[in-house]
Amino acid sequence: MSFAYFALKRFLKGIEVSEAFREGFVEADGFHIRYMEAGKGPVLVHLHGAGGLRLSPAHDLLARNYRVIAFEMPGFGASAENTKTQSMPELAATMAAVADKLGLDRYNLMGTSFGGKTALWLALQQPERVLALILEAPAAIRPEGAAPPPSAPEELARRLYAYPERQPPSPPVDPAVRAKTQKLVARLRGPDRDRDLETQLPQLKAATLVVFGTRDTMIPPEMGHFYRELIPNCHLVFVYDSGHAIGAERPEAFVEVVADFLERHEAFVISRTNTVIHP
Fold first, then answer.
1. Counting Cβ atoms within 10 Å, is residue 21 exposed (0-12), middle (13-18) or buried (19+)?
2. Could you give the 3-state DSSP secondary structure of residue 225?
3. What is the pLDDT of residues 82-129, one digit of tens each?
4. Model-level pTM?
């Protein structure tokens, strides 16, 4: 059995492996940004989804071999309401400034769902700094008329996970925090098919990995093929029996694929195929 397996088992038995993550703050672009950091090795920056910063078992497993820095983007969580940022490219520029303030010259970048679109814009704006790009169930390309994420906790859990009953209960969210976050997400998520972004994707230089769960009901997994067609050096993987929150629901499978990709980049072990269903 791998060390990662036993680490995951400890997590599932209730031992908070994520306690290894330490909290930090940085001032950048007029914002007070919170982040969580753990591990040593090559830097992996993470940009969260529309629900805000939530550490998952995948973060803990990745921190075994990488210096993982998970940012809380301005306007999410307990941060002040963000009325300044008006577009996703602006948000990406802010997060690039945050990385710069922490002295991160070159780094791997991972974006989850909403954060996947932010990560794409950042990689386009700062091609010399992003070594590799991982997009976990990205929300940058959506079916026309796609509904925004549900606000009711029970419905949200059903959309995030294939097996919501297996997940630990989420902490209650302050209604005021939920309201300000939903307003921000609605303003920044952009159109379902963002022509400005899609016309620039063929210029993306970073080796890119797109990962979808086969049971994702938030964003249809088949949207992954658009990224494969538009991004020159893009690899598409489907993780079997996972919903939208892959890193929480299938952490070992997710981390195995991500770690292999970060090690090999263009020589990624499954790069010769369009799609692979990972067990």
1. buried
2. helix
3. 999 999 999 999 999 999 999 999 999 999 999 999 999 999 999 999
4. 0.90
